[in-house]
Amino acid sequence: MAGSKMPPRFVPTLTDVVHVPGDGRPPTAAQAAPVQPQAQAPAPQQAPPPAPSLQDGVAASGGLPRDFEEYVVHRVMQRVDVALDQRLREAIAQVVQEQTRFLVPRLRDEVESVVRHAVYEAVAQELADERGAR
């Protein structure tokens, strides 16, 4: 196993190859045959083939990058990042809007109280200055 790269345990692994005959549509019940396990399945003690690297270029079988796992993880993470960014912005905007609706009456009351108090103090101070000037 030295030198081979094992995929993470949460990554699904292809275990069977299914060949679809004809035009690529799934076979009908009459055409379907029971899947037989391959006769030459590797023994559990055998090490899996070494994982190819990006330095080797593109795999000859299928035209996929040799380091396919990292490529797929990278692409999935990009898609998740974009989706999360958009959904979180929408969710946060909705919560802020709802909270603002609840805050408006309270803010209005608080501003009214502060203005009323400021006007009261200003009038009281002006009256006190007028009485002191007389």
What's a quick, concise take on this entry?
With 134 residues, the chain is mainly alpha-helical. It has one helix and no strands.
Q: What key phrases describe this protein's structure?
A:
single chain; 134 residues; mainly alpha; rod-shaped
Helix content: 40-55%
Strand content: under 5%
- Tally of DSSP helical segments: 1
The average pLDDT value, as a whole number, equals 74
Radius of gyration: 36 Å
First and last CA, distance: 102 Å
Biggest beta-sheet profile: none
Count of DSSP E strands? 0
The succession of helices and strands, N to C, reads: H
Structural class determined from secondary elements: mainly alpha
Low-confidence regions: 35-44, 53-61
Overall 3D geometry? rod-shaped
Describe the structure.
This protein is mainly alpha-helical and 134 residues long. The chain contains 1 helix and no strands. It is rod-shaped, with a radius of gyration of 36 Å. The relative contact order is 0.06. Residues 26-44 have a biased composition (Low complexity).
List the helices and strands and how they pair.
Blueprint: H1 68-133
